[in-house]
Amino acid sequence: MSKTDAVIVMDGNRLIGVDDFHSEFAAVFGFPAFYGRNMDAWIDCMSYLDEPDAGLSKLNVAAGQVLTIRIDNHKLFKQAAPQQWNDLLESAAFVNWRRTEAGGGAILALAYYG
């Protein structure tokens, strides 16, 4: 992924329900077959997007790059699955906190549309 391609667009309609949420992220990011389909596993996979050798995602970014995940139809997602919405926000923040605590930089940004 180049510096100019640092935005992934996801449809909030496809993220409603725990199974659908994890299936969609696993498909879009290319998580490994052993992906645990829970937020701890999501955090682990998203924490290493700039380390392709970690094998936790087929979608990778360059070191120092921040990936923006744009959630379209976020209002419906937030209304239909408020706990998942909160889990997404907290988990993305935790990924960035974990990385900055280890001396690295943030890797995730979230943007919301409609």
Would you tell me which CATH topology applies?
Barnase, Chain D
Secondary-structure element order, as H and E?
A: EHHEHHE
CATH class: Alpha Beta
CATH architecture level-2 label: 2-Layer Sandwich
Structural class: alpha/beta
Rg (C-alpha, Å): 13 Å
Q: What's the helix count?
A: 4
Instruction: Compute the number of structural domains.
Output: 1
Largest sheet: 3 strands, parallel
| End-to-end Cα distance | 26 Å
- Name the CATH superfamily classification: Barstar-like
Shape: globular
**Uncertain spans, ≥5 residues at pLDDT below 50?**
none
Helix proportion range? 40-55%
Descriptive account of the structure:
With 114 residues, the protein is an alpha/beta fold. The protein has a single domain (3-113), classed as Barnase, Chain D (2-Layer Sandwich), CATH 3.30.370.10. Helix content is 42%, strand content 15%. It has four helices and three strands; from the N terminus they run βααβααβ. The chain has a three-stranded parallel sheet, covered by helices on one side. α2 packs across α4 and α3 (74-80) crosses α4. It starts with 6 loop residues before the first strand and ends with a strand.
Short description:
The chain is an alpha/beta fold and 114 residues long. The chain has four helices and three strands, in the order βααβααβ. The chain has a single domain (3-113), classed as Barstar-like (Barnase, Chain D, 2-Layer Sandwich).
